[in-house]
Amino acid sequence: MASSKQSFTTALRSIRRTANGQWQPLERQFEALRVGGSVPRSRRCLSTSPRSRDDVESFPIRAAAEIDFAPRPLERLPIARPVPASPSYFSRKPTFQDGFLRLEELMREYGKLPTIPTEQAERIAWKSFRNFKHALGEEIKESEFHRCMALVKRLHRIHPDMKPEEVTSALEAYKKDIQPFTRTDTKPIIDRLGRSLGTGRRKASTARAWVVEGTGEVLVNGKTLAEFFGRVHDRESAVWSLQATERLDKYNVWALVEGGGTTGQAEALTLAIAKAVLAHEPALKPALRKAGCITRDPRRVERKKHGHVKARKSPTWVKR
Amino acid sequence: MSAPNSLRCLARPSAIIPRSLTSAPWIAAPFSTSAPSLAKAETRKGVMPGGHVRSGKKMQLGKFKKNAVRQGKSPLPGERKAYRKRIQLSNSNALPVPGLEDVRPADMVDENKIGRVMSIPGLVLDQLRDVEAFKPTQYWGMFRTPSTLLRAETVDLARRMQNAADKKDMLRLVISGERLTGKSLLLLQSLTYAFMNDWVVIHIPEAQELTTACTEYAPIPETDPMQYMQNNYCLRLLQGIRKANERVLSRLTCAHSHTDLPQNIPVNSTLLQLTNSAKEPEGAWLVFQALWKELMSQTATRPPVLLALDGLAHIMRVSDYMSPSFEPVHSQDLALVRLFCDALSGKSTLRNGGAIIGATSRGNTPRSPSMELSLTQRLAEQAGEEAPKHPPYAKGFDPRSEEALKSVRVVDLKGISKPEARGLMEYWAASGVFRAACDEKTVTRSWTLGGHGVVGEMERASLQTLRP
């Protein structure tokens, strides 16, 4: 409260200063602020400073105007404090709430439109709960998310010929960024220096490998295979895609790996190098698939369960 | 009712018929590095040939009946360590390599021999064994005769040694490099060259034996700052020198008389006699000093001297010894180490030519920031680049070590080239330890998996399964 008052007075002062160092009646100052819109000019103003002669001349003392008790038309006062754009600003999840309200609104408006069965609707990969939460950056409950997605899926089933544009645009936010069902493979390219880039992932590791024609030199994060991987097995899996296709002495590899442990990094490299080699020799795809270098292994560490010591391990049985 | 049963028979796999021991070719392995005593295990009762010692689950009737595991006799104290540290230099199970030649002095300086594996002659082998040049971690026990690959670095080093001997000059050199790149082996090759050319060789196989306070020490009287002699180690060293250099030392005669030794050595007695005079640890350092003085003598003709040391980082720091006032003793205050460091820094000269070679080690080695910095500086200088500066805020630097390495030449060992790798792998294949065909593909595979031809890593990638 005190601060708002202070700022108000400072605002007033600044206005005063702009008026060539002359004191202005409060009335005028209020007018300048446009607070209240129509303050009657005739109202007497209060000031403790001596008035200049001009002022006295321009504002002769007059009696107050009659109070008008007639009901005034409702007019909106301009708001003097910032108001958030969304009414759900003060909830913890405004974006989600707004989206949800928008979907409900659309549902009220277009819910009566004819629908098609789910299997005939365009196949779309919707964001998963985790994905959605991450994209929004808000703490939402899984149950709320599912209620929201039920609406999304219902709206998506509206007959495509009648589906309004606003519905289509509203549903965009719920789609995954990459649509696997409509996606076409991007063709790997070889740049002007003869390099091709491939990426691979395994467990928590990500690998990028640049492959050029060469004599079998491999550098991972600037180190040789022997320096980077202590285990011979990991070294072999890192270059397995070249070794399985008997191309180890035909290419050089320069790779960057991050995240995860040694096994994950080695196997992420397998995939990355395989993809990069495919740019040079697309015909190797069946051989590489047979060697297990094409399919990404989706397994991750299994979550720990309550009542267990690890994911599966149970605590030791004790009699009492 | 019998029909379905008989049909079911077709679906089942047929019973496994155990192969007989004699007719199974896969049991008679053509090559094995394990001791023949282990072969008995296969004929034990109840164990399938080639199967695991545990023959599967067995029903146990008594609940608390203990498994009757026969423990056998436990090894005596020290026996395990002796087994771990034994050095086996040949293996009669390995195939003899056709066309393998003994290395000759001329081969080691011959550029055309780069990439060839040559065996060490028997006489030199004994000498190398006497100076403890072989190590238990090396793969000698997998081959018929100890042989080494002549690398480009080997030939370069041998040439430098030849130059030094011809000009009566002094080669001061440090062998450095990554793990398993063959630093100790290059040192061994330099020892081989020296032995073959009748140099006098003094080799300290493990510098840590001198500085980790595991051998006795005593202050040398009338030295300031105080220096220390290590008589026990000196005696062992002298015995090694005597055995390895017997032939050369017996030809040389003393130019001075040595009366202060345990045994009176008159002028014109042989250097072998002088060396032999050290029978007890007492006075061993004096004998060593006298021998060194004789070798450095200008009045008589002397052969070049090779002073070699492995594990350089151990002498480039403060040792684990304590002075009488209980302050740590710097490694270079130990008389033997000081002699090496003075020669390495060029403070003292080898009057009759020779070489001072120190090899760094990457296993069980203390960190010596001064040595690391000095070696990188020397390498940069050799490459004609600007040498890295001394880091202003870093700790643990030792000016004495930097002084010792101020003007040495550094050999930075890296992986071998592909032709060299091929020569080596063909030798493996001919010895029967590498079973695949030795062509470009397998060579590149080993070379790549071995981190661009790091020899030890190549061995790990290709021969590890054969290690006994």
UniProtKB/TrEMBL annotation, chain A:
Q: Which UniProt keywords apply?
A: Ribonucleoprotein, Ribosomal protein
Cited Pfam families:
Ribosomal_S9 (PF00380)
Instruction: List the SUPFAM superfamilies.
Output: Ribosomal protein S5 domain 2-like
Positions with biased composition (Basic residues): 301-320
Q: Name one GO cellular component term.
A: mitochondrial small ribosomal subunit
Q: Which GO terms describe its molecular function?
A: RNA binding; structural constituent of ribosome
Q: Which InterPro entries match?
A: Ribosomal_Su5_D2-typ_SF, Ribosomal_uS9, Ribosomal_uS9_bac/plastid, Ribosomal_uS9_CS, Ribsml_uS5_D2-typ_fold_subgr
Locate the region Disordered.
299-320
Taxonomy, superkingdom: Eukaryota
Q: Which GO terms describe its biological process?
A: translation
Write out the similarity annotation: Belongs to the universal ribosomal protein uS9 family.
Q: What is this protein called?
A: Small ribosomal subunit protein uS9m
Automatic annotation (TrEMBL), chain B:
Coiled-coil annotated residue ranges, if any: none
Instruction: Give one Pfam hit by family name.
Output: DAP3
Tell me which UniProt keywords the record has, alphabetically: Mitochondrion, Ribonucleoprotein, Ribosomal protein, Transit peptide
Task: Recall the GO molecular function terms of this protein's record.
Answer: structural constituent of ribosome
A single GO BP term for this record reads:
mitochondrial translation
Q: What segment(s) does the record annotate as region Disordered?
A: 380-399
The subcellular location is: Mitochondrion
InterPro entries associated with the record = Ribosomal_mS29, Ribosomal_mS29_fun
- State a GO cellular component annotated for this protein: mitochondrial small ribosomal subunit
The keyword Cell membrane is assigned to this record: no
Specify whether Mitochondrion is a keyword of the entry: yes
Q: What PANTHER family does the annotation carry?
A: MITOCHONDRIAL 28S RIBOSOMAL PROTEIN S29 (PTHR12810), SMALL RIBOSOMAL SUBUNIT PROTEIN MS29 (PTHR12810:SF0)
Task: Tell me its family.
Answer: Belongs to the mitochondrion-specific ribosomal protein mS29 family.
Indicate what this protein is called per its UniProt record: Small ribosomal subunit protein mS29
Question: What is the organism of origin for this protein?
Answer: Echria macrotheca
